[in-house]
Amino acid sequence: MSKLLDRFRYFKQKGDTFADGHGQVMHTNRDWEDSYRQRWQFDKIVRSTHGVNCTGSCSWKIYVKNGLVTWETQQTDYPRTRPDLPNHEPRGCPRGASYSWYLYSANRLKYPLVRKRLIELWREALSRHSDPVLAWESIMNDPQKCQSYKQVRGHGGFIRSNWKELNQLIAAANVWTIKTYGPDRVAGFSPIPAMSMVSYAAGTRYLSLLGGTCLSFYDWYCDLPPASPMTWGEQTDVPESADWYNSAYIIAWGSNVPQTRTPDAHFFTEARYKGTKTIAITPDYSEVAKLCDQWLAPKQGTDSALAMAMGHVILKEFHLDNPSDYFLNYCRRYTDMPMLVLLDERADGSYVPGRMMRASDLVDGLGEANNPEWKTVALNSTGELVAPNGSIGFRWGEKGKWNLEPVAAGVETELSLSLLGQHDDVAGVAFPYFGGNENPHFRSVRQEPVLVRQLPVKRLALADGSERMAVSVYDLVLANYGLDRGLDDGHSANNYNDVKAYTPAWGEQITGVPRRHIETIAREFAETAHKTHGRSMIILGAGVNHWYHMDMNYRGMINMLVFCGCVGQTGGGWAHYVGQEKLRPQTGWLPLAFALDWNRPPRQMNSTSFFYNHASQWRYEKLTAQELLSPLADPAKFSGHLIDFNVRAERMGWLPSAPQLNLNPLSVKASADKAGLSAADYTVQALKSGAIRFACEQPDSGHNHPRNLFVWRSNLLGSSGKGHEYMLKYLLGTDSGIQGEALGSSEGIKPEEVEWQSAAIEGKLDLLVTLDFRMSSTCLFSDIVLPTATWYEKDDMNTSDMHPFIHPLSAAVDPAWESKSDWEIYKGIASVFSEVCVGHLGQETDVVLHPLQHDSPAELAQPFDILDWRKGECELIPGKTAPNIVVVERDYPATYERFTSLGPLLDKLGNGGKGIAWNTQDEVDFLGKLNYTKHDGPAKGRPRIDTALDASEVILALAPETNGQVAVKAWQALGEMTGREHTHLAINKEDEKIRFRDIQAQPRKIISSPTWSGLESEHVSYNAGYTNVHELIPWRTLSGRQQLYQDHAWMRAFGESLVAYRPPIDTRSVSEMREIPPNGFPEKALNFLTPHQKWGIHSTYSENLLMLTLSRGGPIVWISEADARELGIEDNDWIEAFNANGALTARAVVSQRVPPGMTMMYHAQERIMNIPGSEVTGMRGGIHNSVTRVCPKPTHMIGGYAQLAYGFNYYGTVGSNRDEFIMIRKMKNINWLDDEGRDQVQEAKK
What confidence tier does 31 reach under pLDDT thresholds 50, 70, 90? Predict the structure, then answer.
């Protein structure tokens, strides 16, 4: 409407009056209202989500106005659920609703940045050398130049550069490192591909084409629960959150659902409205406790004791006193409880449980010619020994018998759970007891370290002519829980009030939970499962999994579920939610991510072992293997340092290694040619002679450490980096706050397998490159920082275990400033690398060591004894007693062409996952038509992958979860192994093909796939183990069933063949640190826990202005009121926490919700926000990981043994941190170090 007339005085409308002239009608200008109306106008809405590893995976509307993102709101158009189930929306949280702040904030990375000292050296070198590789070499060959930029990492000093210059520098560094030391010295770390799978794949594809090392994350984050691979042969598979609603009894155990699973919490409360009883088990009064009917508060770290006390009640009341037919039938069919275990005799005449009996132990092998040493044996109801279908020996080398049908040798049979009533004798069997181990911070119940219990046994004649006694796993389990079977067992409990392992009275002594509560909840849990056939559920979280003995915690809870027949039943089972681990279209993503379309196998490394070694954390190790051993084991066989066990595991092929050999793997072929051998045969010969050694045996030799490290989609040094200060000192070569003494300065046990150097190398990394959209703690310590597109500026995909949908990340706007998507960044580096490498690297032969992989025939490598070829106990046989040695041909000048095209190995070898394979030619042809093909060059005729959108379509086309035709092929392939028909699970979706534009229009529900154990169905919600129970598909374990008995020799030696309560370890981080000068305030040792926070997702959002406004605005540590009074600390005081690993500063939150003896610093509060200097270190206070250090567990190193075999992020050493203790005290001087230069800070530290 025109306002022209309003400008003229004589055209003003006269105002009327009212109320006898007391009021007047005004006609003033109201243009100001337009600004309010326009505030909420927008040009378009684009669907996207947040790639932040929160498991939420929520769909959001992104509002764009004038080319800028203005705000976001939650989408509400999720596909409907069935009528008896609540809908998925609303999904979202305050953290996600604040993300748009980042796009235009001061913390946004806008331009490529580089450390000033490094770029000056680089520019000078380039002026002297026209070849970039020679220029980088000139810097690397000058120790003073290297030290000059390494020692100032973390001290600022960034300057703006450009993409061309930095791509050239990175490419030259990569080429020189590969040429000089080998491609395995170039590594990359990025976590959780499910949160932005194309962005993850960009970096790993580049690294894999080079032969570089891709580092794991799920184990390093301590999100991996080793109990899951142990029990089910599955990394993690859990119910979607909608299945909570189907449950009749839920225990939230160490999982703070409303705080850390905010978008899903409505299902939890809706289930309560339906009548579901909910129990919270957390040591602190957390938010989940407010949503529950009852709250139990066990002493932190004693969860396995509580679970075993509950298991004692369940077994006594529902298996012995009043047996539940449902429970017994479930255990008979779906667990290893009927399987027989051979007993080994001890010197005192008692016995210990040995390994599981196999068909090969018997004279006729029970008629099993294929893999008889991997087929477990049970007694059937008629007293015959049988090898029932489904054990892992049926998986490989034959078809049609790998199933859970009640069949053995083609005959239907019913297995016996217990030998009681069929037994030949009663024998005393010894069990280890760890609950009496003394720890000043945890309660113990003193009993004999070896408990001899009476069990029914069978006497059996074996193939070697001997007679052995055998017992069923079921009887072992009952005895382990201390139950009286009427066999005159003096160690068994007479009733619940006996303080004997593992009664409720004993549990009360250890955990502090009243015995009546233990009895009641265990009884209710089991009674509900009995009446509903398994609809009892346990939701678990990081609070339980982050302890050193996390597998004991989890196995105690898993046992409860298995005893009650809950796993694989709708509304039942375990629900482990730590990390957005579920990459649903995994098999479609794998070839893209690890360049399996061009080269196989890729180099992959478990990060826990990697950082334990290369950050020299092992040099400060005080824990010994002897402290962990079972009292039934021979200590002489387990001497040495913890790193020795890791070295042995790498040498025997159990674990991967990186770097792999003590020489450049590209140089092996030349030596092999001179010797007239193949590269693989030469490597075997040289390893046996000692001419070649594993790099892990000489970590400080100067040649055997990583040199280039890429970090993207991660805040390694500000979030997940356990042993933060060790990383600063040894990987980066900069200042650190370590307060402990290395082994060289103390009398600790030194390694036997590792060459000891008195001085460790500091500053091992020549180049640290970080990609991020914001300035994080990792960026601060990097050499080069590359600005990436935010989640609203790129195309990508996102899935979660919490719901069945696949979501897009969409480019609502172009990347701001000079930022680029991860795909474009790595594509650019690949392009420059292909140019720079000419003259230095061509077509090269690479020798790759590949560990004995789970879900491959190599998991059958080592069936019985542990034999080490280095000690002469066996021959070095690749793929059997040592890693596979694989020759891979690399074409370095073609790196870019290969990066941007789909390679020929998919045509030749097909695709697959988790031991299943299928032909994928149709999908490759389809992608050639969709993405077009390369017209020339080394990849001529291959489908193009030029953009992130192309990469997304590759994943969607290849994955059975998003391509119905592939799903049918995958189910057919599984059916050939099981001998059963499974295609009915996907045949109705055969014509469904999800494309990227489809998921931009609306979230799409994925298609059921045999690589997962649940179903996407109109009739049931996704629940892990559902297809195992209802389709009779075996679990991928030794017995093919849920494996409660772990019979590997190391598991038995460390006392963990069966679940046991193991108290937290003593890391000696407080007792053996150097003397810290007092500051006048009292000090106290407290257990240091790092739960997930409310105002951030890991470190993201922790410096977001909106979240800082809602929270206290900086680092905080929660302590109890009792401890605060003792230490003279008041709420909001500045405090310092320190131990041998380092120190941190924060403000105190004094709260009655925290029990005495424990303190909590919520995980990943960035060091860039409001942190003063430390009185202990003289530097700016550290982060939560400044007071932690990795401590690996030997039983997590096992490999080549059925389900206990390595897989990337599947099984391996885990980065736990909750056993740590800190000294805490009030700070006297708050120094912000604002006006001090580096030299003054260092003088203060000295």
Answer: confident
